[in-house]
Amino acid sequence: MRSRINSKTIVISVSVLLLLYFVVFPMIILLYDSIMLDGHVNFQNYANVYSQDVNWKALTNTVQLSLVVMIVSVIITFPLAWLVGRTDLPGKKGFRTLLVSSYMIPPYVGAIAWVQLLNPSVGYINSILRWLFGLETAPFDIYTFWGLAWVLTLFYSPFAFITISRAMEKMDPTLEEAARVAGASPLRTVLDVTLPLMAPSILAGGLLVFIAAGSCFGIPSIVGMPGNVEVMTTRIVTYIYMGDDAGVRDSTALAASLMFIANALLFGMTWMMGRKDYTTISGKSTRPNIVELGKWKIPAVLGVSLYGAIAVVIPLGSIVMTSFIKSMSKDIGFDNFSFEPWIPVVTSAQYMESVWNSVVYGVVAATIGTALALFVAYLAVKTNIKGRSLPDLLTVIGGSTPSIVIALALIITFSGNFGLNLYSTMWIIIVSYLVKYLTMSVRTIAAALSQVHISLEEAAQNAGANWLRVCKDIIIPLIAPSVVAGWFLIFMPSFYELTMSLLLYGSDSKTIGVLLYELQTYADTQNASVLSVIILAIVLIGNLILNKVSKGNVGI
Amino acid sequence: MAEVRIEHVFKRFGAVTAVDDFNLVVKDGEFVSILGPSGCGKTTTLRMIAGFERATEGTISIGEHVVSSSEAGTFVPPEDRDIGMVFQSYAVWPHMTVAENVGYPLKIKKVPKEERERRVQAMLDLVHLGEYGKRYPNQLSGGQQQRVSLARALVAEPGLLLLDEPLSNLDAKLRESMRFEILEIQKKTGITVVYVTHDQSEAMAMSDRVVVMSMGVVQQIGAPHEIYTSPANKMVADFIGLINFLDGEVKGDRIFLVGNDSHSWANKNGLEGEVTVAVRPESITMSADGGEFRGVVTHRFYLGDSVDFRVDVNGHIVRVIKKGSDIEAFPDGSTVYLDFDQVMFFKRN
Ligand SMILES: Nc1ncnc2c1ncn2[C@@H]1O[C@H](COP(=O)(O)OP(=O)(O)OP(=O)(O)O)[C@@H](O)[C@H]1O
Ligand SMILES: [Mg+2]
Predict the structure, then answer these.
(1) Residue A287 maps to a domain
(2) How far is B184 from chain A (nearest CA, A)?
(3) Same domain, A273 and A369
């Protein structure tokens, strides 16, 4: 009995301390730095920053962009989720996979693809349209506010799609059937019952999109910066790159504002969801009410296909195609395709080192993270110690903080000012991945743990096993699939992470995301495409494994 | 009000035949229950009447209208069938007040506001929720929500009311009083009712006629006492009430319990070979001095208002329920005599 309490207490205290040190402490330092000037509380930093037009413009751009992306995502996503979830749309399963799959494409890869398609000089779509209609100038310019909004919408609307379709699945279908027998047509039923009942989830999905779009760095840096469309994240990076004290101070003020907006929205959302809970008792006799599309079937299939093509097929196709083009200056034709462009990339020691770095950091982060997630989840789900969900909450805070804020906080905290100096080492990168992605793993493992009945553990304890032994012999084998899934949920986003890696890498710790970003900024489209395809392939394989072990329940 | 005709209706889900050649005419103003074990196709039948499920074959008419016909390709959607429906899960809309819930069918029909309010209030009074109009459903108990659902189903005065296990989420006491309320309302409105349940006492107590289903097939249609006293087959006999199934055999023109020749019955239905002798525990009289069968008491269970005995008659274990609470009248091991009343015979399989 004694040994059980001791090992448990030690393990739990260590994980709490680690989380406090690596998640909470840096953010406090960041906030502290942003409001301190020469040892006094002073909001001069903020005044400085926002008195400059470029920063003020970046703030309004961020808010406007996020709003546009949120609203458009919801408007597009609700009918898509309804069609896929609640109608007899042919090929529903395939469409669902297609619609969520842009979720697993690294955002900056999407941005690179859209730059290839819509840049005003040589964008594929622009070229085709000019040739078709004999236009003098390119009809589209991606390097604008609306171009940025377009790419952000396509890449973040899956957040809304997933939230909304989950809520749709959870809703008791008899609520809709009751409206039908009351005389309402299918459309009227959607308007009077489905939509109002789903309003909280729709809003939640929208806010997730808002936060993701506002915190994104990859897409605005590739699509926005060339056309001088600045957002908060790009401004923060610009200031950090200045490298001097003033730059860092200014960036802390901007980062603190961003963190504040994101967290305020998240807490508001959580509070609202908690208050307006429409879950009702659902009888065993409920089966989803499948609406027959009838004559709308073909238009619906066309509409959903069109969206799938625009969001996933065309951009990915563009990247894959570009990676196989022998000469970018020649026309596209079969004689111009070959593996040639791949050879310099896969034989380059420099490139392969970055790929290797990313794999190693991903594996290390995922392994440490899974171990930590196990303890955090166990504590939250299986014990009744006071404050048991505190570590869980800390990981959630880490996950909901914009990457750029995490990176900046780690830079100012772990550059030796407070003992530990991780600057330019691989460890600071790994810590950043853990802070950002631990929560996904915790969620997955916690869900599995809550299914393991306490009596199974008690039986093992009666048999004389101590707590660690119980974990090893009973709990872990039972939740193994979720542990593996949790591992991949850290590994994959870490593997292709860009924002934090870009701010934290050193000369020996360049990752694949950073390399790709550099290639793109040097306008090396060809190599960028090859590297993108490599990333996509690895992410795809990871997702297939994840799907297999979790039986389709978890995915990125 | 409306008559419902269901003719040769089949429903197949791939290889599964959920409803197999269903035929039923529900008369205008009649209360018919569909009763059967879980998965026998009750809900599927009701949902075909409502229009949420398309019959694979057959015709369904409500009143004058054919609402579903596989031959003619007719299919009227639920909103145009003029029905009311009550769901097991209540399906009361949480974002509307009680009055808004109940008033919704009238709103769809564009009934003017004053008349709507008047009718909603009358409906709420009928289900004893007169004071609750302004509340939201999450401020109501399960039983109250189910009454809102009932009021909503009735407010537009449909010709037909469909209920799918409306009481099974309620506790036992409430279930009894709600049975009574539903019956009262049916009497007042004269509406035709099709009521799905797996609870036989509910079906027996409420209905004019009961349809017993098993594995998609209708086993018997009849008034409750008919179903109880002359079940069409072993399945129905077993499903409705308690019953002893004892092994019997035909010898000559008489039926005997296997291994016992102290008593026999006339073989009226001309059964052959091995048969099942069925008798309800409460149709057996037990005494200490003489009767059709001699047996020995092996177990007794005290039930409060009655005692449940197991009696061994030549190896047949017979269940006997005796009214009254005198458990000591026939102690374990005592010899008793049994007289069987209302005995039924089925082919043994
Ligand atoms: N949409 C469907 N797809 C496939 N099979 C179905 C579907 N709906 C019903 N079934 C099958 O049809 C049969 C009858 O189902 P139904 O829901 O009508 O049963 P029930 O009598 O209402 O049972 P319960 O008392 O459990 O509600 C079952 O075997 C069920 O599995
Ligand atoms: Mg049912």
Answers:
(1) no
(2) 22
(3) no
Given this model, what pLDDT does residue B102 score?
95
Burial of B134 (0-12, 13-18, 19+ CB in 10 A): exposed
Query: Quick one: B268 and B202 in the same domain?
Result: no
| Residues with a CB atom less than 6 Å from ligand 1 | A 285, 287; B 13, 16, 18, 36, 38-44, 198
Q: Are residues B214 and B251 in the same domain?
A: no
A465 lies in a domain?
Answer: yes
Do A270 and A345 have their domain in common? no
Q: How far, in Å, from the CA of A504 to the mean position of ligand 2?
A: 59
Q: What is the CATH number of the domain that holds B295?
A: 2.40.50.140
Partner-chain contact A285 B164, CB within 8 Å = yes
H/E segment holding residue B295: strand B293-302
Asked if the ipTM is above 0.90, the reply is: no
Residue-wise pLDDT for A36-51, tens only, equals 777 777 787 788 888 8
Mean pLDDT by 10 residues, chain A (556 residues): 60 82 88 78 81 89 94 93 88 86 84 89 84 83 92 91 84 88 91 88 88 91 90 90 82 88 83 60 52 87 93 90 76 70 82 91 94 87 78 86 90 81 86 92 88 76 76 81 88 91 89 90 84 89 82 58
Q: Which residue of B has its CA nearest to A180?
A: B79
Q: How far apart are CA B105 and CA B156, in angstroms?
A: 6
A60 in the same domain as A15: no
pLDDT at A553: 59
Q: Which domain does A160 fall in, by range?
A: 47-277+295-323
With CA atoms as reference, report the closest residue to A370 among A477, A488, A472, A449: A488
| DSSP element (H, E) containing B310 | strand B306-313
Residue whose C-alpha is closest to residue A80's, from A245, A252, A312: A312
In a domain, A414, yes or no: yes
Same domain, A20 and A137: no
User: pLDDT: is B33 or A418 the higher one?
Assistant: B33
A448 Cα: distance to centroid of ligand 1 (angstroms): 30
Angstrom distance (rounded) from CA A288 to CA A292:
12
Quote the CA–CA distance of A434 and A369 in Å, as a whole number. 6
User: Which CATH number belongs to the domain containing residue A368 in this structure?
Assistant: 1.10.3720.10
Map tokens 């691989």 to a residue: A426
Domain co-membership, A99 together with A239:
yes
Are residues B183 and B51 part of one domain?
yes
B-chain CB neighbours of A286 within 8 Å are 89
Structural domain boundaries, residue B222: 4-236
Domain end among B236, B271, B298: B236
Whether residue B97 contacts residue B159, with contact meaning beta carbons closer than 8 Å, is answered with no
pLDDT given at position A148 = 94
Shortest-distance Cα residue to atom 29 of ligand 1: B39
d(CA B57, CA A455): 51
Nearest CA to ligand 1 atom 19: B39
- B47-101: pLDDT as tens digits: 999 999 999 999 999 998 999 999 898 999 999 999 999 988 888 998 899 999 9
Domain-ending residue, one of B211, B236, B261: B236
Select the residue of B95, B109, B169 nearest A196 (Cβ to Cβ): B95
How many domains in chain B?
A: 2
